[in-house]
């Protein structure tokens, strides 16, 4: 490999490029040889335990030192953040308590009926009757199915985390936009890392620094959900037409006036897309953060899953789905309603006429909440009004187990025997030295020695940290899931691209799949396939299939119509157009979709640790339960590095294809 | 002023109608170069550099050695095709970008030396600008958009709303005060842009291709609107366009730019009749002479004959050609004081319309 990284004269490089297949052939043979000779050179195959660099010990020491030395800081942060959080929790879920002891004044939490009405009105304000019915219906569903308390705990956390994320995101976004150097050196790489580190890994340092409490859940949520806001701010500001900036200057704006009164309002549509993403990511993370004390719906799912009460888990999961759909549709409608703002002389009307929905919502909340002091049915939804579907799910499951057990079991076992286990064996026996070399070779071919060093180095880290087998276990499960997602997703995307009717059916389904927190995907699969690798794989595929479908559809559809016409005029059949024109032109886009699929699959595989996989996710999960910060963070980094390696390689490949196509 | 000698190395004969108005803005040796150490490059040469020098120093010239004076109350049009540097030049004049070299004086004050605070103050009260793509704020309605420059200054709401309503009257947008920009047509949007730029009562008014994004009919309507506004307001206007017809329709004087240089400055008539280079001639070739040539240019000494009517010396031939041909008698050219300066014959008008050079006119037009 040394010859590849050294500087060669041009002719030499050209000769090498021409013989890439030969190089790959040699490399593969060499790696296979290494595998055959594993008894002679065991240290090239499995990393020797005594040569492992103790990253995790160092990390643990660092965390312990941090804990010992900045506990005053973390404690005060906890206290400060605790105030608004307690208020929100009291307002939505528990009751508000002012004062202490016997003199405490208790203000009741918002009445469920009032919140449902307010949700209905918000839907009506931003999206008309249909949205009102949808949003109001979702909240009513949560109330009627007895998930109110948990759902409101979750909502309270989101209500505090989202504004914090938006403010931080906008501020950092502005800072990075103003200083391109800061962006390049600091912000972009950190954002990349923040978004590829699995959600679980965030929880560990939070747990250590801030304890098992809603505050640490909120901080983890804020860290996880801020990056899209930063990106949206930067994108939005850079997309404001330069004329508008010039106008701001010519109107005599000070730099501050220009930013706040001209640029940011003009960037509003992009900013609102960021807000929607922040809300959805917050929801996702709040669910996962139930493991470190967030409580709420996620905790319900977690408890039910641990006890294998599938019915209850399903019900809590559906409540999450209802909350997710309500929040997503509402925030999307808010994003677009700004553009649809109707003209009219509103300023001269009184406040309640101008904000009729807001006034009504406040009135409904106040009346029902005050009423709940006297009418208990308004305070908490009466037991006999609530419904439960848990027995139904249980019966359904029983029926399935009794009647379809053989089919499902046969499917499961054959999948394990003929697909999963062989691949697993190959992956786990894969020599680490060979993997580093192959990944580095791919990096060199796609992006030169710099990329080769990055991807090779990140791969080597996994080995040097002593996590090689677990890394390969992750790669195996993730790889199979990605291949399956692509095999299913890309054809669906193609069908959607070639038929408007299919697209109309597919779009709402993938839209919904995309807003669901990753947790929810596990539940129905566990019902059918119990715990294990098959379940993890199926849940991952259903989660990660979305970008494969979406990008394929989008890529094919954005092929310029003139190209298609040109192909038609040259006498191509539909099939020929697909294979010779549409697919080659859309390939970069499809590859981006695959790279997204890999990242999503990775995120999901990690969460599947809860149902007993044996990979890096499990490592993080164990570290979480033992509060072993070093071990968890290093495993988290290893996962992030897998993601970064895949992302960089696919990104480079897509970029090269794009250069050739355009 | 009478002549501007040696503009970018090209002498342009100028016989401007004597209008000794004070100079509002003047540029001397204004350069905008892109590339490393551009300022140093020009300073060592004191603002004189050839195309080769620039290329050799690895620089790109967007604006090269521009010199002109703009007088109070005139419409000064900078005309050039895309990439000629006209937009860059106007951004230098308004200091949206800083020139690499040269001086720009605004009412005798060096614009390049004022502090940021002074510049903001100047822009708030002295300058207005209209943009090609309107640059209206999408989140504000018409009234708020027009009042925005005043809001930025901290003018109280009642005053600025009243002023904005005045402006709405001026550009005939009454009834649309509460519309949002996206609800307006392009022409209406640009009316808002014009009203907004005038709300602060600027002394100097920059219009950067204000009508280029509009379709031809609306463009014409807006040009008429601008002529009407100017007759009321009498602002100093710097107007950018790539449309030569628009330039000769509106301009008191036109500066033609090519490759960052001003290659000729003059009244439309002079550009048409005495193009300094083939490039200018190419532009003017299809311009109907009658729309450019003035009565003064066509007149001969008065013979005291029986006049069929009178015309002002600056009236363009197209404005009276139909009348004079119909009447069939010479018209007297009469200045504002009522004094007869000379006469224009139907024959000379017909000759001009037909494109035949006529002998004996006071100012020949040899290039016709």
TrEMBL record, chain A:
Family named by the database record: Belongs to the binding-protein-dependent transport system permease family.
PROSITE patterns according to UniProt: ABC_TM1 (PS50928)
Predominant location: membrane
SUPFAM superfamilies: MetI-like
Recorded superkingdom: Bacteria
Protein species of origin: Allorhizobium borbori
Recorded GO MF terms: amine transmembrane transporter activity; carnitine transmembrane transporter activity
Pfam families, A to Z: BPD_transp_1
Keyword Cell division in annotation: no
Phylogenetic lineage: Bacteria, Pseudomonadati, Pseudomonadota, Alphaproteobacteria, Hyphomicrobiales
TM segment ranges: 20-37, 72-93, 105-125, 131-148, 155-177, 197-225, 278-297, 356-381, 423-444, 451-468, 474-497, 509-528, 590-612, 632-650
PANTHER family linked: GLYCINE BETAINE/PROLINE BETAINE TRANSPORT SYSTEM PERMEASE PROTEIN PROW, GLYCINE BETAINE_PROLINE BETAINE TRANSPORT SYSTEM PERMEASE PROTEIN PROW
Record keywords: Cell membrane, Membrane, Transmembrane, Transmembrane helix, Transport
GO cellular component terms attached to this protein's record: ATP-binding cassette (ABC) transporter complex
Topological type in the membrane: Multi-pass membrane protein
Localization per record: Cell membrane
Residue ranges constituting the ABC transmembrane type-1 domain according to the UniProt record: 151-331, 471-650
Biological processes per GO annotation: choline transport; glycine betaine transport
Name of the protein this chain belongs to: Glycine betaine/proline transport system permease protein
UniProtKB/TrEMBL annotation, chain B:
Enzyme class: translocase
UniProt-listed InterPro entries: AAA+_ATPase, ABC_osmolyte_uptake_ATP-bind, ABC_transporter-like_ATP-bd, ABC_transporter-like_CS, Gly-betaine_transp_ATP-bd, P-loop_NTPase
A GO-annotated cellular component: plasma membrane
Pfam families: ABC_tran
EC code: 7.6.2.9
A molecular function (GO) term: ATP hydrolysis activity
Subcellular location(s) per record: Cell inner membrane
Catalytic activity: a quaternary ammonium(out) + ATP + H2O = a quaternary ammonium(in) + ADP + phosphate + H(+)
CDD domains noted in UniProt: ABC_Pro_Gly_Betaine
Boundaries of every ABC transporter domain copy: 42-284
Domain of life: Bacteria
Topology in membrane: Peripheral membrane protein
Swiss-Prot/TrEMBL GO biological process terms: amino acid transport; glycine betaine transport; response to osmotic stress
Keywords: ATP-binding, Cell inner membrane, Cell membrane, Membrane, Nucleotide-binding, Transport
Keyword ATP-binding set for record: yes
Family: Belongs to the ABC transporter superfamily.
Quaternary assembly: The complex is probably composed of two ATP-binding proteins, two transmembrane proteins and a solute-binding protein.
Protein name: Quaternary amine transport ATP-binding protein
Organism: Allorhizobium borbori
Taxonomic lineage: Bacteria, Pseudomonadati, Pseudomonadota, Alphaproteobacteria, Hyphomicrobiales
């Amino acid at each position: 490999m040394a010859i590849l990284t050294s500087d060669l004269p041009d002719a030499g490089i050209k000769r090498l490029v021409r013989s890439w297949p030969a190089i790959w052939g040699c490399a593969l043979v060499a790696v296979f040889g290494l595998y055959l000779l594993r008894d002679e050179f065991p240290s090239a195959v499995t990393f020797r335990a005594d040569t492992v660099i103790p990253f995790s010990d160092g990390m643990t020491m660092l965390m312990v030192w941090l804990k010992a030395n900045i506990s005053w800081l973390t404690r005060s942060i906890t206290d400060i953040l605790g105030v608004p959080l307690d208020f929100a929790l009291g307002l939505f879920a528990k009751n508000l308590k002012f004062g202490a002891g016997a003199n405490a004044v208790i203000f009741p939490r918002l009445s469920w009926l009032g919140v449902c009405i307010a949700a209905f009105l918000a839907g009506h304000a931003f999206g008309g009757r249909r949205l009102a019915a949808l949003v109001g219906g979702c909240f009513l569903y949560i109330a009627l199915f007895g998930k109110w308390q948990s759902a409101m705990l979750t909502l309270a956390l989101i209500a505090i985390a989202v504004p914090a994320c938006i403010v931080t995101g906008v501020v950092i976004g502005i800072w990075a936009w103003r200083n391109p150097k800061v962006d390049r050196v600091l912000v972009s790489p950190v954002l990349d890392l923040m978004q590829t580190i699995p959600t679980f890994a965030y929880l560990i340092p939070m747990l250590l620094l801030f304890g098992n409490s809603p505050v640490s859940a909120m901080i983890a949520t804020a860290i996880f959900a801020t990056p899209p806001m930063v990106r949206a701010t930067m994108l939005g500001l850079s997309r404001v037409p330069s004329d508008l900036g010039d106008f701001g200057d010519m109107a005599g704006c000070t730099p501050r006036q220009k930013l706040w009164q001209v640029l940011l309002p003009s960037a509003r549509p992009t900013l609102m897309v960021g807000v929607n993403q922040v809300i959805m990511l917050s929801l996702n993370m709040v669910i996962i953060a139930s493991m470190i004390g967030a409580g709420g719906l996620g905790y319900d799912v977690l408890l039910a899953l641990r006890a294998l009460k599938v019915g209850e888990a399903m019900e809590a999961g559906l409540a999450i789905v209802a909350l997710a759909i309500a929040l997503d549709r509402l925030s999307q409608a808010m994003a677009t309603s700004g553009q649809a703002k109707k003209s009219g002389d509103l300023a001269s009307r009184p406040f309640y006429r101008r904000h009729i929905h807001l006034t009504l919502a406040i009135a409904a909340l106040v009346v029902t909440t005050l009423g709940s002091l006297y009418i208990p049915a308004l305070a908490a939804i009466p037991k006999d009004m609530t419904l439960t579907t848990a027995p139904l799910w249980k019966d359904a499951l029983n029926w399935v187990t009794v009647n379809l057990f053989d089919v499902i079991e046969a499917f499961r076992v054959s999948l394990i025997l003929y697909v999963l286990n062989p691949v697993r064996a190959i992956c786990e026996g894969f020599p680490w030295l060979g993997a580093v070399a192959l990944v580095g070779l791919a990096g060199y071919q796609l992006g030169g020695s710099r990329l080769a060093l990055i991807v090779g180095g990140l791969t080597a880290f996994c080995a040097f940290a002593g996590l090689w087998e677990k890394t390969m276990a992750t790669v195996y499960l993730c790889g199979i899931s990605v291949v399956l997602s692509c095999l299913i997703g890309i054809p669906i995307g193609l069908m959607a691209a070639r038929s408007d009717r299919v697209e109309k059916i597919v779009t709402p389904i993938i839209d919904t799949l995309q807003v669901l927190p990753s947790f929810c995907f596990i539940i129905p699969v566990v019902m059918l396939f119990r715990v294990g690798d098959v379940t993890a794989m199926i849940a991952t595929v259903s989660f990660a299939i979305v970008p494969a479908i979406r990008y394929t559809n989008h890529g094919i559809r954005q092929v310029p119509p003139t190209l298609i016409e040109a192909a038609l005029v040259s006498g191509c059949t539909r099939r020929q157009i697909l294979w010779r024109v549409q697919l080659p032109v859309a390939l970069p886009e499809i590859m981006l979709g695959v790279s997204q699929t890999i990242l999503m699959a990775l995120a999901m595989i990690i969460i599947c640790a809860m149902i007993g996989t044996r990979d890096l996710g499990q490592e993080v999960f164990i570290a979480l339960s033992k509060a072993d910060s070093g071990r968890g963070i290093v495993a988290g980094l290893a996962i992030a590095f897998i993601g970064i390696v895949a992302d960089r390689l696919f990104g480079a490949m897509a970029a090269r294809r794009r250069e050739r196509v355009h | 002023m009478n002549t501007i000698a040696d503009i970018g190395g090209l002498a342009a004969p100028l016989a401007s109608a004597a209008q000794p108005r004070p100079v509002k803005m003047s540029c001397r040796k204004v350069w905008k170069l892109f590339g490393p150490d551009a300022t140093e490059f020009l300073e060592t040469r004191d603002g004189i550099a050839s195309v080769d020098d620039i290329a050799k120093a690895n620089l790109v010239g967007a604006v090269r050695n521009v010199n002109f004076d703009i007088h109070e109350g005139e419409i000064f049009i900078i005309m050039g095709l895309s990439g000629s540097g006209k937009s860059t030049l106007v951004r230098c004049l308004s200091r949206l970008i800083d020139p690499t070299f040269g001086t720009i004086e605004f009412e005798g004050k060096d614009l390049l030396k004022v502090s940021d605070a002074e510049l903001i103050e100047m822009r708030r009260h002295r300058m207005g600008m209209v943009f090609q793509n309107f640059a209206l704020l999408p989140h504000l309605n018409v009234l708020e958009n027009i009042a925005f420059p005043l809001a930025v200054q901290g003018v109280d709401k009642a005053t600025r709303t009243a002023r904005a309503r005045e402006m709405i009257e001026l550009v005939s947008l009454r009834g649309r005060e509460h519309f949002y920009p996206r609800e307006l047509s392009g022409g209406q949007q640009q009316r808002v842009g014009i009203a907004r730029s005038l709300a602060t009562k600027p002394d100097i008014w920059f219009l950067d291709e204000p009508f280029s994004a509009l379709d031809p009919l609306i463009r014409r309507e807006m040009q008429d609107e601008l002529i009407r506004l100017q007759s009321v307001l009498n602002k100093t206007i710097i107007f950018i366009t790539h449309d030569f017809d628009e330039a000769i329709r509106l301009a008191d004087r036109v500066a033609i730019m090519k490759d960052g240089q001003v290659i000729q400055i003059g009244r439309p008539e002079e550009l048409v009749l005495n193009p300094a280079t083939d490039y200018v001639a190419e532009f003017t070739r299809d311009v109907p002479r009658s729309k450019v040539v003035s009565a003064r240019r066509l007149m001969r000494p008065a013979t005291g004959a029986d006049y069929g009517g009178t015309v002002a010396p600056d009236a363009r031939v197209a404005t009276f050609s139909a009348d004079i041909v119909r009447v069939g008698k010479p018209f007297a050219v009469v200045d504002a004081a009522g004094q007869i300066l000379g006469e224009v014959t139907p024959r000379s008008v017909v000759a001009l319309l037909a494109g035949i050079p006529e002998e004996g006119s006071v100012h020949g037009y040899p290039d016709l």
